[in-house]
Request: fold
Amino acid sequence: MMNFDDLHQEAKKKILEAKDLKDLNDLRVYYLGKKGPVQALMKNMKDLPRAEKPAFGKKVNELKKDLNQRIEEKRNELTVLEMNHKIEKEKIDITLSGRRTQSANLHPLTLVTEQLEDLFIGLGYQVIEGPDITDDEYCFERANIPKDHPARAMQDSLYINEKDLLRTHTTAIQMAVLEQNAPNLPIKVVCPGKVYRRDDDDATHSHQFMQMEGLVVGKHVTLSDLKGTLEFLARKMFGQDRQIRFRPSFFPFTEPSVEVDVSCHICNGKGCPTCKGTGWIEILGAGEVHPNVLKMAGYDPNECSGFAFGVGIERIAMLKYGIDDIRHFYTNDQRFSDLFDRFE
Reply:
């Protein structure tokens, strides 16, 4: 086994010659680690006479202290050298010509959302947002969706616990707005935001998508008011020649309920692949607010009425800009985003 002096001299020499922090750390582990030669010296104490053990232990500890100090000094030296090298390597020549920056385009979902918000703000609506996580009561109960309704099943909704879930529609925001403002009238709001459902992603479906729902409650609000509002929406988004039609449907929170189609903006109602030859394209669901919804929020359905509608932001964007796959919105492909500078 190497003696104290030889071990000390060898360690000092190698520490002094260390070229980088990795080499230095390897030396620290080698000499001062549990299996290193310094620790091995301590194992010899058991063979020494008792009188010699204190002096021997003191000498080993002094050796450890000296090597630790030299390693620390060398570490400081190497750290400064590496920092200077990095600074030199990353130095910027301020005399060089600057790089031209590329302006980013708004995402098509942002474009459509802002267009819809501007449209409804001009009609006197407020834009109200809410948390993505809501509870069962505001997502379903207040929207007149009973416990046994299929939308309540776990295969459709993403529950966090027995009570809380990721909202399946922005109706949850509307229910909170109704409760907070009762019994004041009128209520005119649109509620944009992401919604979440258990669904398999394909060209037309996504487990996460965006909605904008509208709600109007006041005195003598009728389906005629709803139709006029949606005609204005269709013409602003798809052109002044657009017409809309109502088809009977069912939604738990509206009665009566309708599906709304807009005349095809590609073929002007003559029939084409986009509208599947019908001349019409379905864009949203709507209807008169159900009396139960008004009652639960603190309103008297005999004194007021209202309408509600919900539009898919992705669906509007796909129709407006000719996008054939909903997954394009979420791939983060810059080439896709670059297409939309011409639509601004």
